[in-house]
Design brief:
0% strand, single chain, mainly alpha
C-alpha cells in the first residue's frame, strides 16, 4: 500500500515555545535596561510577553551589568514575614521554625548571588 492509498497521511509538526526559566536569574538585566523577570507576565503563568516597559520583545542579557556584584548590596534584605505564634512554649518547634527560616534566607541569597555569576 503506497502513501496515497492510506486513509490518513501523517504530518509531523514541531512546536517551539519559549518559557520562563526560574533558574536563570531574575536580576539579570536585558540590553533594554529591564530585568529578566520583566520580560514575562506573572499574571499569565509567566507567559513570555516581551518586556512590559518598552518595545523589547526578546531578552538579550547585557553582559556589562552581569558581573557587577556590588549591585547585590542594593537588594532588599530577606523578609521572613510575621513570626507565627503556633509554637507557644514548644522549644523544639521554635528551633525547627528558625532553622527553616534560615534555609529560606540562604536559598534567597544563593539564588540572588548566582543570578549575577
Amino acid at each position: 500500500m503506497t502513501e496515497l492509498e492510506k486513509p490518513y497521511l501523517i504530518e509531523t509538526k514541531i512546536l517551539t515555545t519559549r518559557i520562563y526559566n526560574e533558574e536563570y536569574g531574575d536580576h539579570r538585566k536585558c540590553i533594554c535596561g529591564h530585568l529578566y523577570e520583566r520580560h514575562f507576565d506573572s499574571y499569565e503563568d509567566m507567559d513570555p510577553c516581551g518586556c512590559k516597559y518598552c518595545a523589547c520583545d526578546d531578552f538579550k542579557e547585557d553582559i556589562d551589568t552581569r558581573l557587577d556584584i556590588t549591585k547585590i548590596l542594593d537588594e532588599l534584605n530577606y523578609d521572613p514575614g510575621i513570626l507565627h505564634p503556633y509554637g507557644g512554649g514548644n522549644i523544639t518547634w521554635w528551633k525547627n521554625y528558625v532553622k527553616s527560616e534560615v534555609q529560606h534566607c540562604n536559598m534567597y541569597w544563593r539564588r540572588l548571588i548566582e543570578s549575577y555569576l
